[in-house]
Amino acid sequence: KRMDFFSSLRGSACARGLCVCAMAAMALHAPAGVIGPPLPFSSPHLFPQLSVSHGLMAPQPLSKTLSFTRQSKLSVILATHGDFGEEDDRVVTLLDYGAGNVRSVRNAIRLMGFRIRDVKEPNDILNARRLVFPGVGAFGVAMDFLKKEGMVEPLCEYIHQGRPFLGICLGLQLLFEYSEENGHVEGLGIIPGGVVRFDSSEGLQVPHIGWNIINLKQPSLLLGGIQGQHVYFVHSYRAVPSLANKDWVLASCNYGGEFIAAVKKGNVHAVQFHPEKSGVVGLDVVQRFLNEDPSGVIKKISSKEEEPAQKFNSTLAKRVIACLDVRTNDKGDLVVTKGDQYDVREQSEGHEVRNLGKPVDLAAQYYVDGADEVTFLNITGFRDFPLDDMPMLEVLRRTSENVFVPLTVGGGIRDFKDKYGRYYSSLEVAAEYFRSGADKVSIGGDAVYAAEEYLRTGMKTGRSSLEQISYVYGSQAIVVSIDPRRIYVEGPEVVPFKTLKLQTLGPNGEEYAWYQCTVKGGREGRPIGAYELAQAVEDLGAGEILLNCIDCDGQGKGFDIDLIKLISEAVRIPVIASSGAGAVEHFSDVFMKTTASAALAAGIFHRKEVHITSVKEHMVKKGIETRLQPPQECHV
């Protein structure tokens, strides 16, 4: 078996040799379907002679990947005082139906020192000691997969037997009788009740994306460490509490009304939030589920069973997002850069691409600093075939090993033909990003073209990248990035686009302006306004809008409040404010003056002019709800 792993080792060369031999041994003798732990050296169960300190971060990867290939008569003899006799006790069976980012779930399990056995046939479910079902995507697509593969009956039997089960997000919703997503779709029918869409008729932003607080309804060991802490949600549909399912409800959450956040009966658990994306708080949930023989990698927040406490009246926390604009420099290295009104080259004689650091290292640092999400924008992705961009895919894979908050990636997500004439749909491109560790994909130029066609014809074709990806993965997996520039006009009748009256007159005394959308990194203007584009992409399936502003980019004078208000009023999906942040006050300003769900910044974080912790502390002082890092979060 080919075994890939990334790790950094402490200690002597002898210790390094011992661990390499151990990996070889596991590669040669592991049962079929079992993937040996990529991070075996963090587990004192496997290597008691190699100690690690408690904490959060996985070890930093080596610069090279080692591969072991089975040979016909090769054996490896390993001397160690670790006990390998209870191998199956350290295996988690994972039901991955192939949609969305499951890599982070895998990384979280491996961080605890467990190995993963993937479900390949129905009997694998019944043979599992522990079963994890991380569902991401659309309800109907997941049920179709379970039915086609003959997994509905064994999955229901496993759960009815009360054996250890953890469902995540869609893995919770599928336990109910039905869902209204994509019409009325029958679920597994284990829990009475249904799954319905959040009601956005009175202005509630849907999807429910971000960090919220849950309220326990019954004592829980699984959720013992998260009472009063923020956890990460991303969904448009929710399970509704009722008298019929009251005995199942472990915890609830409030967003436009109460919904079920977690269920429990015996050893069967499921959560609507994503523990693998909820930082150290969420990783504590994963460890508690695997608690029969805890690895000790993460210090428990509490060893006691948590009792229901006072109800937490929480609003959805405002998010602070760290953005990394990534591209290759003139030497071919993948670097983080930052532009001044989208110009990323230095003004020096060489005009080199501005280099502000290495993507994986910066992302890991921002995670530790408290970033609620990390976004990678491949700013030259519109030029090339993204699936040829192996360094960018590797950045995602390596980042997801260490960063347990949501990752978004954008750049070049559209239909392609490679140099051999082979056609790739935008859905295939997005799928590769998801498999590599992305939770959401950001679409730019392709969304503009799709919106123009939709507004021209008034018809949805089902062929656009927005429609295809949202159908399979759900609208919550799609962010549309809008790059507008302000165009001054004398009056609203001059253009067929939405204009706004200016508080400060334009350069020639103009009283009005409209925002023209651009593509290709701001190089080409399009005949569509930001207001019209936002409404069109919401109709086509976008779940969130990343709202940039070319005029404010790199200026450090604050976000374009007028633009953010304009777009927020146009749509009922979350809006991320971007471009212009230069001080902590700019974040409180945008949250207090607009309904933006999140604010994104890049250069001020890269250059250490403003720290994420300073932004969060300032927001708290201003009475703005935000997620704060628990004190247990630290490095291994």
Features:
29 strands; globular; 17 helices; 636 residues; disordered N terminus; 10-stranded mixed sheet; alpha/beta; 26% helix
What does this 3D model show about the protein?
With 636 residues, the protein is of the alpha/beta class. Helix content is 26%, strand content 22%. Strands 1-3-2-4-5-14-13-12-9-10 form a ten-stranded mixed β-sheet. It has an eight-stranded parallel beta barrel with strand order 15-17-18-21-22-27-28-29, surrounded by nine helices. The chain has a four-stranded mixed β-sheet with strand order 7-6-8-11, with helices on one face. Helix 2 packs across helix 9 (390-402) and helix 15 packs across helix 17. The longest helix has 17 residues, at 13-29. Mean pLDDT is 81; it is low at 1-86, 292-305, 338-348, 350-356 and 632-636.
Give the DSSP E fraction (strand runs of 2 or more residues).
Answer: 15-25%
Low-confidence parts: 1-86, 292-305, 338-348, 350-356, 632-636
**Backbone structural class:** alpha/beta
Mean model confidence by pLDDT: 81
Tell me the helix content. 25-40%
Strand arrangement across the biggest beta sheet: 1-3-2-4-5-14-13-12-9-10
Count of helical segments?
Answer: 17
Largest sheet: 10 strands, mixed
List strands and helices in order, with pairings.
Layout: H1 13-29, E1 34-35, E2 91-94, H2 103-111, E3 115-118, H3 122-126, E4 131-135, H4 139-148, H5 152-160, E5 165-169, H6 170-173, E6 176-179, E7 185-186, E8 191-197, E9 208-216, E10 230-235, E11 237-239, E12 249-254, E13 258-265, E14 268-271, H7 279-289, E15 319-328, E16 334-337, H8 359-369, E17 373-378, H9 390-402, E18 407-410, E19 416-417, E20 423-424, H10 426-435, E21 440-443, H11 445-457, H12 465-473, E22 478-482, E23 484-489, E24 500-501, E25 512-519, E26 524-529, H13 530-540, E27 544-547, H14 561-570, E28 575-577, H15 584-593, E29 598-601, H16 603-606, H17 612-621
Parallel strand pairs: 2-3, 2-4, 4-5, 5-14, 6-8, 15-17, 15-29, 17-18, 18-21, 21-22, 22-27, 27-28, 28-29
Antiparallel strand pairs: 1-3, 6-7, 8-11, 9-10, 9-12, 12-13, 13-14, 15-16, 19-20, 23-25, 24-25, 25-26
